[in-house]
Known about the structure:
Elements: E1 15-18, H1 20-24, H2 33-44, E2 48-52, H3 57-67, E3 77-80, E4 85-88, E5 93-97, H4 102-114, E6 120-123, E7 126-129, H5 134-143, E8 146-149, H6 153-156, E9 164-167, H7 170-184, E10 188-194, E11 197-202, H8 207-217, E12 225-229, H9 235-240, E13 243-246, H10 252-257, E14 260-261, H11 270-278
Parallel strand pairs: 1-2, 1-12, 2-3, 7-8, 12-13, 13-14
Antiparallel strand pairs: 3-4, 4-5, 6-7, 6-9, 9-11, 10-11
Helix pairs in contact: 2-11
Amino acid sequence: MTLTKLPESKLDVKLIALDLDDTLLNKDCIITPKTVETLKKACKKGIYVLLCSGRAHNGIMPFVKQLDIKNEPYGKYMIAFNGSSIWDLQENCEISRQSVPSEILKYVYSEAKKRGMCSIVYEPDTIYSWQDSSWARMDAELCNLKFDIKEDFEEYLNNPFPKMLVPSEPEKVSSLKDFLCEKIGDKADIFISKPFFLEIMPKGVGKGKAILSLAEKLSIPKEKTMAFGDSMNDEQMIKMCGFGVAMQNALDYIKEQADFITEKDNNHDGISDFLEKYVL
């Protein structure tokens, strides 16, 4: 049975934030022409449209180019690293950045290494790890980033980074998450974004807070913000934005938290269908 929660009338929206994987992107990791057309239409109507992803800057840029709205007044912003980084695309500069303290990065690295798990950090165009790993390479491939090994990885972690990822088998990821939440849950945000990805973020930072911070800068009230998502790293923005919209293919928990649920999934233009009916 398909579960939906739909608006009773048109919604007054001035900012739309979009998760990428399994939300804006279909199973082939592309934005369909229909959805591109809808989002361009939203920009033309004076609605800010921004991509909001856990990926690094260069991992998001191919989709920015596909949308072709960054030179529009209402398409100039992007949120990366699950809210740790906000970019002005027209100025090509980072306007906000939050980082995980180096001592937390080193602690996670050490605990992951004890369990035979790799840990990775990000520069704008490259993923770095202390060892070669099929899991790390999978993330690099998914995010369209280069992969490199740092022989002095622990020393490299003296630098703060916007997030750390520990990719591995789901059982090992879940076990490490429980351990880290108990040990350092008061110092970092720790969550599973996909069954095989454990994310370590700055405490209190997230997509929702980044969206509302940007909305405040743009003088847009919270009540006129909208976010589309499907997974646990979307929970904060689904809850915090004026209108939280879960995809039809979202986790059941995310659907429960959302104000609305799309009628169609990410493989059938769920975002376009919802926006055309209830926003534009």
